[in-house]
Known about the structure:
The chain has 20 helices and five strands. The termini are far apart. 57% of the residues lie in helices and 5% in strands. Strands 2-1-3-5-4 form a five-stranded mixed beta sheet, with helices on one face. The protein folds into two domains: 3-368, no CATH class; 375-489, no CATH class. The chain is mainly alpha-helical. The longest helix has 27 residues, at 83-109.
Amino acid sequence: MNKTQKIILGFAAAVFSLTAIFSVGYFQHDEHFQILEFASLKTQVTTADVLPWEYRGQIRPAIQVALTFILIKIYHLWHIDSPFNQILLLRIVTGLFSFGVIYFLYQTLLPQIRSKNKTYFLLLSFLIFFIPYVAVRFSSETWSGNFFILGLALTIKYYDSEKNIVKFNHNLLIGLILGLSFAFRFQTGLLILGLLFWLLFIKRSSLKNIFGIILGTSIIVGLGILIDYWYYQEWVLSAWNYFEVNIIENKTAEFGVNPWYFYFTALTDVGIFKFLTYPLITLCLGFFILKYKNPISFSVIPFLIAHLIIAHKEIRFLFPLAFLTPYMAIQVIQFFQEKIKRPIIKTLTAIFIIIPLITLNTATVVGKSFLFADGGVMVYKYLYDHYGQTDVKIYYLSEEPGFYSQQANLIMNFYDTKKFMSMPDCRLKKEDIKKIKPTKKTLLVAGSINNLTAYPLKPVHDVLPNWFRKLNKNNRFKIKNANWKVYEFTN
Length: 491
């Protein structure tokens, strides 16, 4: 590894660390409610009656919940009791895991990259604008994706030769890791199935090898059933429950139905970032055409087709693929490097395409490393840090959804250890603000309704600095829940 590559790794480590520290909150509410709130039941912070419907449906695997429970217990032994410090450590653990997986994948695929492109491949592997953000998310998508990529990289490593002679314990190890991927998120079963097809039809692997992988996966599935029993206190097959409820009964359609092309439009409707996502999507599609026999193509194409067919779609469903995109992009770039011989074309491409994209990507990576993930959780953090030891009354406006949740009637008990949102009569209509006669410290939390200058309120906290709010006009940086503010009653 040369000096430039060491600098890139150091810079990437710094970006991952900053992103883990500042990325307070979640990308999508399942990242919170179906992991942290589920774990809070076991730590006795919350009760079963206020958990999401998925708990009663017994459709969520409990393995990540168990991991969360164990880590939080350890944090308490270390006297780390703040929920915000606990989730910070969970993001750091996730970031370290992701960093190691990305580097292992990079090293595994490096022989397929030309010498002149190795540094670019390292740069892309860690620093495409969305990778640090995804890498620190303590979500099932990131953890399952990490385990799948680890299993994929081991498969490529062990099956690199034409002989296909792989030790049984190596196949068992691949199966165990792929099983963990499935246990953390059932949808990755499609990725695993595609990889097995590649072994059967492209590598012509023996059934003995396949059996070893399936055996390893089955062991983890059995372990997952035991963990589900520990959590739900009865024998359940959460994988089957998930399939029955969301696929057969089509429960997910209640949360929105999208056309088959949703992912293409959603990934390009991202403000200024579309200048990065358009070329990246094009390169990935080109990879599937040029490298259709590659194990990544065999794994990803069935996964994508299934997600195009399923009516309910969310960007996070593609998170397990995030760390594969640098390899797909560099492979297509190498193809065109062979085809384009004229130096003038290469020079013009560098000046008008590559350099502007690198500049925009670098600015985005650095900028996003200092941004929170969700403004509502930032309000919780402010209240916890500044009013945790204060006798305080907190209101929020009934005309807008509560900042504490994006789902109806769900409270973040994991964060709300001071029970700010459990106070009676905390909802308040805008026209009743002037009627409040506080007898103690009284606050109002407001988001989308910001025209409150005519009321006896003093702004005490804004989740975004004023200079950045001006820069983020019309939310051009796509920051989630960025309008929340805290006011103090002055009358």
